[in-house]
Amino acid sequence: MTFRKKAGLVMAALTSGILVPGAVLAPVASAQDGMQQDSMMKQDSMKHDERMKEETGKALVTGKFHGQVHGTEGRATIYQAADGRVILRLTRFKTSNGPDVHVILVAVKDSADDANFLPGKTERVELGKLKGNEGDQNYEIPAGTDLRKFQTVSIYCERFNANFGTAPLEKF
Predict the structure, then answer these.
(1) Hey, where are the domains in the chain?
(2) What are the tens digits of pLDDT across the range 123-144?
(3) Please, are residues 130 and 155 in contact by the beta-carbon 8 Å criterion?
(4) 37, 65, 131, 169: least buried by Cβ within 10 Å?
């Protein structure tokens, strides 16, 4: 078999998902690896002009992300929307990619990059899986969440119990 035929078979096997012994495969990107751009626009059945206005909402608390092991940057701000919903908005956000990464509120004042930063007794509120490791993102906070108690946003890898980044929240 010629080199070209062998190379063609290897490429066909790689693109079809067949594992070829001895072949080196590139890591598969996760759904969280990429840019996310959520807006703060109203999305209901109002007139076009009104829908295009940015929802102003009242900013309640804000904080800047920090992280040492996993470089994490950006700002976390919690807004009270005009319709009563409470929204966490990440802006200019960027972090490392990882498996099973979530956005959580934690009942602590701040958090370091510990390998096991969430002991079993630490209370948290799950806001959902991280939508992307870059970009502006919105997460709805469950009604009744006590923001005096849950004062820190964490980007948390569930699989490895690892904190990618933390934003301690403070009033303006």
Answers:
(1) 48-171
(2) 999 999 999 999 999 999 999 9
(3) yes
(4) 37
